[in-house]
Amino acid sequence: MATKAKTGKKLVIVESPAKSKTIAQYLGEGFEVDASMGHIRDLPQPSDLPAELKKSSVGKFAVDIEHGFEPYYVVSPEKKKKVAELKAKLKDADELFLATDGDREGEAIAWHLLEVLKPKVPVHRLTFPEITKEAIQRAMAELRDVDESLVDAQETRRVLDRLYGYEISPVLWRKVAGGLSAGRVQSVATRLVVERERERMAFRAADYWDLLATLAPRAGADDDGAAQRFQARLTSVDGKKVASGRDFDDRGRLTAKNAVLLDETAARALAAGLADAPFSVRSVEEKPYTRRPAAPFTTSTLQQEAARKLRFSARVTMQVAQRLYENGYITYMRTDSTALSDQAVSAARRQASELYGPNFVPSRPRVYASKAKNAQEAHEAIRPAGDSFRTPAQVANQLRGDEFRLYELIWKRTVASQMEDAKGSTATVRLGGVAASGEAAGQDAEFSASGTVITFRGFLAAYEEGRDEVREDSENGSAGSAGSGDGGRLPALTAGQPLDALELTANGHQTSPPPRYTEASLVKTLEERGIGRPSTYAATISTIMDRGYVRSRGNALVPSWIAFSVVRLLEDYFHDYVDYDFTAEMEEDLDRIAAGEQAGSDWLSEFYFGGEGKPGLTTIVSGLGEIDAREVNSVEIAPGIVLRVGKYGPYLEKPLPEGAPEGTVPERANVPEDLAPDELTADKARELMENSGPEERVLGDDPLTGHTVVAKNGRYGAYVTEIIAEPTPEQLAAQPVEYYKNGKPKPPKKPAKVKPRTASLFKSMSIDTVTLDDALKLMSLPRVLGKDEEGNVITVQNGRFGPYLKKGTDSRSIGSEEEIFTITLEEALKIYAQPKTRGGRTAAPPLAEFGDDPESGKPIVVKEGRFGPYITDGVTNITVPRATPLEELTRERAVELLAEKRAKGPVKKPVRRAAGATRAKAAAK
User: Fold this and answer.
1) Which strand (E) or helix (H) includes residue 345?
2) Residues 6 or more apart in contact with residue 357 via CB below 8 angstroms
3) Largest CA distance in the chain
4) In sequence order, what are the residues at sequence separation of 6 or more whose Cβ sits closer than 8 angstroms to the Cβ of residue 917?
5) Three-state helix/strand/coil letters over 166-213
6) What average pLDDT does range 330-341 have in this prediction?
7) Predicted confidence (pLDDT) per residue in 827-865, tens digit
8) Region of residue 380 (left: phi > 0; alpha: psi -120 to 50; beta: else)
9) Residue numbers annotated as active site
10) Which helix (DSSP H) or strand (DSSP E) does residue 448 occupy?
């Protein structure tokens, strides 16, 4: 056999076209760089398996559960052309370089390429933390083989997620609602959000009072007392601590022992008694203040900080970071490491010294250890790319919008991480006086104030880390910080120094419930608990929002009632699989597989079939027994009022008393979609029940048909309809008899069900006031007005967007619903004589505008469409998800949704197969 002639070509395969373009700039002649466009193959849907496999041990999951959990992979239909292109290029190459990302996902992509391309030339694996010339040169000097252990860990995770989802999701479909899904991380994340809402629902506020004093050192003849005034808050009365917000539990009970709880009367009496009392300084304590810079960004901390400072969602952050990485501006953005390379440390220290001065750089480099549970992957922290960093000013002409803002954030954090501590001093002053008069006479009141003065800004000159909302933010802060506050300056004071009380104010406060999760705080909690991987958090949060489990309200994440049902079912019947520690242990097991310490197939066998006395997932699913769906989907809101999660959404219901006549309909009320679960209090539930009106009201019988006409409350508002009775046995018997060919009579057929006429009420109507005549008019629509000169019929009717005329496919809006019954043919012809505007009506202004899209550069707007609001930049359109209320849609979410739609590519129309065409078998592993 002839030996293949050398061509001198070297094929390099990466994941994305953007990455391939950047890398191609740094490789010499002879290298050809191409992109696989992500994974080239995956597990198919079981329904797409070849017929002979559907009945085998592979058929349930596209995984052979009886033979080592071997996955059955197929090349994705949209990737077959790309695979053919790569094979053609490989034929002309002397060497193959697999340069996909260095994490488990990238390692798996490289392995799949090997398995499908089957190269007959030398194969090299290379990874680089950044796409720069220096990094690629170093990677070329450190070539290796594909890491089978990393591949095993990724494959185990993929199979695990298939087993978890395909076994548990069908239980949700049967007992909660169709279209729901369960997932190893998404279900736990949903549980976190639901549990926080439960805490808010169980929370009971407590009231407490205190005093705020405005004071100044006693002024001498030449002193300006006003210039030295400061504030202090009451901390104790007669030596006993004054209760503050942190002294109460979530049931509103005072938990601090020997604490004094002031009410309004006591607080005002004490303020009045102290009005003329002498005050003096009782103690002054001063301590040095030191604050260290935050570590460089990991995936998790980048998502958190971008959410706080830039208002980015986790997904937008990762999409923008991906573009910055692929274009050579930052290092790899999926990492748990806070470490910096020696070159990066030198670059950060050098830049800090040049920009802020040598005294802002410590004598020795700072070293950071990862604090994340289950930290993995030996990457660097996220930082600007290169052995020397480009400042934001240097990239301002190359980057724009979100890319520039995120680069600037990463640059600031990296440089600040190698700068000196911020230094200063914190002074805490205690002062007091004794009430001289009134009901509080003789009571000793002690106040405190604190102030921090920064004498050397250090890293703060470059960057200051944001923080999440804590409960004390919305209550009164601690007494110690209520004086001047952090960063404030107190006047020079000494013990025993007399003070003048310029003002004494009694202030009332109320404890606040635990704050809802934001994307930033949810990411932080998931990482701290070791649940999932930071690189998947963005997709997890998007999934639970798109599934309708969670919606955003401003920055807060609010769970839906259907999420309550899902979490309750999982807690009751699949407790381990939504247990926080159990889920974190699974992540640790995957780390051991990645390290080569355990085989993935053995672990999957124990997870699915059980072992060492522990049941597996299949055992638990098969032994579920009867699940009371009604119980799972019910939440008691108040005595005698239960919230039910139904097919068309949540509603309130008063259960029927025992002995109620059969057929009695319980009293019900719809729950407004924008009402958060913790806002559905007992009082609110009673209000909704009282204002709900009748569920159904009989209006009378249609004189023409004899059908009973009723008005009803529905999910989308009130409507009228007719009740068409089922045919009687006599009517069925009176039908014509049909016969088989052999002459025997066929069984009588049930006649086709007649669809009842239905119509929505006008906005001016209600169930209580609508009449039978109104209903018959509404159900008679559309109303025929007549024909135009060409013989086209013109009708008028009501629609989702209001009343309109219709002539063939030409629709025109009219003014009001009442005009439906008054408009004449002549008036309609006048409307049609006018020039047609877009959509048959004057183009409506956008529902929202979000500036230019960072990808297309075109303006992003939200418009009302036939199927609801949609986002568009004039090129790409995407419907606004149901879980995102239009009022709470942000620019970041709009950009994210458009980017997702672009990534999916255009929707391909199904190809109609010729009759008798045979189906090609899926490509097996």
Assistant:
1) helix 342-356
2) none
3) 125
4) none
5) HHHHHHHHHHCCCCCCCCCCHHHHHHHHHHHHHHHHHCCCCEEEEEEE
6) 90
7) 999 988 887 665 444 556 677 888 888 778 788 888 877
8) beta
9) 332
10) strand 444-456
Tokens for 76, please give them. 């994705």
For 765, the token pair is 């109507």
Q: H or E stretch including 166?
A: helix 148-175
Q: In what order do the strands lie in the sheet with 877-879?
A: 848-852, 859-865, 868-872, 877-879
3-state secondary structure of 235: strand
Give ∠ CA 855-861-867 in degrees, rounded to 5.
115
Span of 99-103, 607-611, 688-692 with lowest mean pLDDT: 688-692
Rounded Cα gap, residues 617 and 434, in angstroms? 69
What is each CA distance from 79 to 38, 42, 92, 254, in whole angstroms? 9, 11, 21, 64
Cis link prior to 782 (omega < 30° from 0)? Answer: yes
Beta strand extents in 37-148 (DSSP E only) = 41-42, 63-64, 70-71, 74-75, 95-98, 123-125
Q: Alpha-carbon distance 800 to 406, whole Å?
A: 42
Tokens coding 286:
């001063």
Contact 758, 714 (CB under 8 A): no
Task: Return the structure tokens found at 388.
Answer: 């020397």
Phi-psi region of 868 (alpha: psi -120 to 50; beta: other; left: phi over 0): left
Token representation of residue 244: 């503050």
> What global pTM score does this model have?
0.77
What does the pLDDT read at residue 483?
A: 40
Among 333, 361, 380, CA closest to 418? 361
Gap between the Cα atoms of 888 and 400, Å rounded: 25
Measured CA to CA, the distance from residue 317 to residue 310 in angstroms comes to: 9
**pLDDT digits over 908-924, tens only?**
544 444 434 333 333 44
Rounded to whole angstroms, the Cα distance separating 520 from 503 reads: 40
DSSP 8-state secondary structure symbol assigned to residue 602 = H
Q: What is the dihedral of CA 820, 825, 826, 832, to 10 degrees?
A: 80
Weakest-pLDDT range from 426-435, 466-475, 806-815: 466-475
Backbone torsions φ then ψ of 858, nearest 5 degrees:
-100, 155
Q: How many residues are given for the chain?
A: 925
Cβ–Cβ < 8 Å for 63, 69 = yes
- 8 Å CB contact between 631 and 642: no
Q: How far apart, in whole angstroms, are the C-alpha atoms of residue 334 and residue 186?
A: 19
Please give the backbone phi and psi of residue 578, each rounded to the nearest 5 degrees, phi first. Answer: -125, 15
